[in-house]
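Bumping with the actual sequence this time:
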Amino acid sequence: MTTYDTLFVVIDAQRAFVDPAGSLVRAYGIDEVRPSVEALARLRAHLGRCDARTRCVFVRSEYRPGQFTDGRLDAPLSELCVPGLNIDCEWAAGLDTTRANTVITKHQEDAGEADGYRAVVEQSVRNGTRQIVLTGFQLTTCVRASALTTVDLVRGRGTRVVVAEALSGARASSYVPMATGSRVEATRRELRAAGVVLTDSHAQS
């Protein structure tokens, strides 16, 4: 069995979060997704540099109508990543999906809710993976939740969990300062407090 130094996890690199026809743009306008579009460009370039020591796992979302709108079907994002209703579930343009060793579908924000994801993490740790790097969309929701679960899954087992922030996007409004800082800053604090390493790129050591 191949031993990988790094498990590289790409979360929700789907049209919902970066595409002009995706739910976020339709709900809030193109400016709201610009940070994610920029992160996607960096992510696409990075995938081209992944070497044989890296196992790439792509995680995609399929949700229920109204899942994040308290059941309201007339609210923005009521059809976010609902299969068959729009283009949200499709992979983002230009994403090299052939890089994926494994594709996992999740139905909640947290990839850790998917049995397939937990199985991949467990197998990787048993086989000697030294680090798990999470990237994707959105930094303040799905990436955050998945990183927090992942660090609990591997705690005390010699595998570090990294969030590559430069390869992860958030809504533009998530960077806007508030009284206690922006949502992105709050996410950074929470991740660091849990033992997640934040980096501007995909760390190799």
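The tokens above came from a reply further down the thread. The two ends are 22 Å apart (CA to CA).
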